[in-house]
Amino acid sequence: MTESLQSPAEPLKFAYWVPNVSGGLVVSTIEQRTDWGYDYNKTLARLAEDNGFEYALSQVRYIASYGAAYQHESTSISLAIALATERLKVIAAVHPGLWQPGVLAKLVASADVMTGGRMAINVVSGWFKDEFTKLGEPWLEHGERYRRSEEFIRYVREIWTSEHAEFGGDFYRLHDFDLKPKPVEVPGRPHPEIFMGGNSTDARGMGGRVADWYFMNGNTPEGIQEQIRDVSDVAQVHGRTVRFGVNGFVVARDTEAEARDVLREIIDKADREAVEGFGSAVKQAGQSTGDKKGMWQDSEFADLVQYNDGFRTGLIGTPEQIAERMLEYKRRGANLILCGFLHYHEDVEYFGRHVLPVVREMEAAELERVHA
């Protein structure tokens, strides 16, 4: 078996969850000085790119659910954020089944031209049945959702890179199509990057076969390493390489006690009804897999208060503790940390001022040891 280990010479990359959905990044009644509106997010994007963040991931919700009453659509706010910044790369989460892939590919290609090559997509196979059925779209069985997503990715990649695009699948077809304008030609990037996530066997196989990046829910370093190994094994068979991102909720404070107190308050003030409703919905999605292996299947109540298991990554404590934890994920093969925060403006600035410099110092020291 192969293992895709992160090179010590390559710095960790950082992304942040765009709070384009109301309610913040934790399902809790704790005060969150975070807003879902555009003006707040425009300021946040500029802060983020000035504090070490390379990517911004816009989540996708279509209807009010589990504490998220309002939502800005992901592709539109991603483009708006990119146009408000100079360097930040934006990732828009998109659902096959709710997007026709050629239309989505056209939108992203145009947005990529407008932003100088800073657009990407995160293909989400879907866990929330109501978003499909209330829009009049069929809800597919788990494996079929991933099969559709794989075709979606192959179609989009083909239309972005071919002058006479052809694709024939069970869900999508493409006939001698020449998309113009094509996305921007960026060195080392043949087309806008394609992210996806998951934990199931279906997701791991799909990630190895077609994804550029594979996002993982929060987990221990050992749990992350296992997923990286599985996806990399599939990728190797297909002559590919995949890069990996880990979700984590960051509570960085001057002392560990302060950080732990914040985490305790978040969980103590959890919106129990919303957390339990979310937990029931996502566990149902994973239990529909053949091997009962999927995202959130071993998540406990406290884990689900941060809806991508961000607490499990353990980025709670002092800047030094968090930096060391991040480097442990890098040693296991992670290329990127996807961060959520409680009070975004303040916490992103604190991250850039106090956490990121320690990460870079530790990376430099580790590189020196490797070459000693």
From TrEMBL:
Pfam families, per the entry: Bac_luciferase
Organism encoding this protein: Nocardioides mangrovi
The protein's name: Dimethyl sulfone monooxygenase SfnG
One Gene Ontology MF term: monooxygenase activity
InterPro entries assigned: DMSO2_SphG (IPR024014), Luciferase-like_dom (IPR011251), Luciferase-like_sf (IPR036661), SsuD_RutA_monooxygenase (IPR050172)
Annotated gene: sfnG
Gene3D superfamilies to which the protein is assigned, alphabetical: Luciferase-like domain (3.20.20.30)
Superkingdom of origin: Bacteria
Span of domain Luciferase-like: 14-335
Keywords: Flavoprotein, FMN, Monooxygenase, Oxidoreductase
